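Retro notes
What went well: the complex prediction finally ran end to end.
Inputs used:
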Amino acid sequence: MALDVDLLDSGGTGLRRVARVLGAESSRMTDVLSVPGTSPRPLPTEGSPTGGSSALAIDVRGVSKRYATIQALSHVSFTVPSGEIVGLLGPNGAGKSTLMKSILGLVRPDLGEIRVLGHEVREDPVAIKRLVGYVPEAPALYEFLTGAEYLDFVADMYGLPREVRSERIAQFLAGLELAGHENALISSYSQGMKQKVALSAALAHRPRVLILDEPLNGLDPRSARVTKDLLRNLARHEGVGVVFSTHVLEIAEAICDHVVILRHGEVVASGTVPVLRAQAGLAGSGLEEVFLALTGTGDLSDVVAALSH
Amino acid sequence: MAVAATLIAGVMFELTNASRFSSSDAANWLPLSPAEYVAASATAISYSYSPGIALLLGAFLPVTLAVGVPATFALTAFLTVLGLVEGAVLVEMVRSVVQRTGSLGAGRFARLVIVLRAVLLIGLILIFDLAFNPVIILGFIREATAFEWITSAIPLFWSTRALAEWSAGSSALAGAFAAGQFVFLVLLVYSAGAVRARFWVPNPAEVAEIAPAVRPGHPYLAAVGLSGPEAAIASKDLRGFVRRREMLPTLVIPVVLLLLLAVEGSMFGRLGSILWVGWVVGFFALLLSVTSIGQERRALQSLYAYPITGRNVLRAKAASILVPTLVAAFGMPIVVSALFGLPLRALGGFIVACAAAAVVLAFWGLAFAARYSDYQDRPRPQYLRPGAMVGALASGMVILFSILVPATYAFLAPAVSQAVVGFAIGSGGIAIAAGALAFFWARSGFDQLFRQLPF
């Protein structure tokens, strides 16, 4: 499989390394991921940590979740096809994080069904977790471990063979510019460095599905660019299904194939950015205007005026 | 006493809380001078410890009213509050210096810093134990106040002198010493401000040791039957024990209690010493296990995201608790047996009883931890909800002594008799029954816990 040379050149050597380790050199990686464009990947089976493929990476149907008096999710349905990046947008408290945790099985919905690569999450959560990489909204890492120890720990969790993990960890450390800091305790890291460790931990086992809750938080421009290009590369060339939440609408517009907008736990809009523009009646507008119109927070001039005084 | 109590409690807190709570980064960008920060922080520390002082003064008030010396009470209360604040300001000075020292504790000096911190903590706990022994503290004050020049020269004694002069009817001298004490406090605040400006580092580094990027697995943990992920979790927890300073008080407990036994052991006798050691081992196991889930705090969600089950986590947690606990269960009986010249049969029984107590209490604590852990980030982490902590400790102690007392009778008996065998079987039976109950209760708790993220 050929690398996307333009993308790699824009990201420089680090991206080249990360892309390589994540599967661009598919002949070396057939133990973990199958080659895109070949026969369909089999569904995950018992004892098969690598699992296989399904046209739908994620299928969420009618999911509801209530916390005491708060209806966090209400009859949410959407799909993430393999090889696509779906952006989850919504104001704070819209239910994005709850939805992402539900997809991974960290939260049990009251109603509805969630399938990841064809498997119902509640039936075989361990097999599904082997195929998924997750970055939570606020990664809580073990701060008493060094960056390298943490990645080694995560590699143990996913049963990554020792003969490949050293190289893979080293590639991530270099690609995300953590090399030289790997033996410092995570407690001494900046927020951006912690985010890089969390991203590396989510990607190192070469997951088939990525659930990323604001993954670019705190990243420097170079690392953010590396991450965005890497996600595109993984989706397009490796068939990884990505669900991605962000508050930075330019990022969503730039990398998402499809956008789902949540408000008060409900899907208020879903589609490609041009479809959403049409839905909002704002042809030619940016995603920010579309988002504000669809979430009912369009006219903010009064708020700005009040805060200005 | 107020100064000593605040100082020791405050410094102990400073040595044992998590580093991120030691950083007062906001104070670096808010418009505050070092002296203002010290004054504010010392006030907060004083407020934290004020309930103890209030209780003491509250108990003292009716006595003073009954004997008709309300003015003495007022002076005592004023001077006690001054002492409380003085202790808090001294804590601030120690804190500034400790942060700088902590920030140096990386790289090749890391292990030395860990050991020094542990030694300092053990010393402080022993001092704490002695300082609150009324016989010792009152004796010290009596000795010191016998020499007027000592108490006149050392400002920390001026409160005592003021009260002594007041009681002797010399109100002018009493007023002078009390005023001197107040002036001393003001000077102390400014000195603490200068110390903070000189030594403060905004973000203290944790102790770090150089480690290779990828370790060659966990052969010892794998050898006891743990899977790769289980061994990784256990290994991570064991590293956390020595690297997280909030865990230090828990880890030094066996050492401190053994030292207390050495210092005050003559009171205990042979039977008391053996039960004391058995209690220390069981208590240590219980303490490690009840805190084992809560100490994960928000990072617990990482474990949920990995392809592991609750039972994997249970096995890993049990291993990480039993490694240090069984070391104590084997080591401490050997030390005590040497002290008291116990025969080999008694030593064997002692070790078996301690090891059994450790295993049972470890699973008992895990059952509570799975159900009632507290995941909040606090400067003084509590790991388990307070009611559950009381329940775990109370029930754990009942189980512990139900195992230990008959076992001790059996292995200390000079000859094997029917009664001795009966006690041994009884102790073993209780251990097996309680152990089975604890194990199944812990297992169902972990199954339940890992169904859904608890926060």
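What we learned: The interface with chain A takes residues 19-20, 106, 203, 205-208, 210-218, 228-229, 231-232, 235-236, 239-240, 243-244, 297-302, 304-309, 451-453 of chain B (CB under 8 Å).
What to try next: split runs per interface for comparison.
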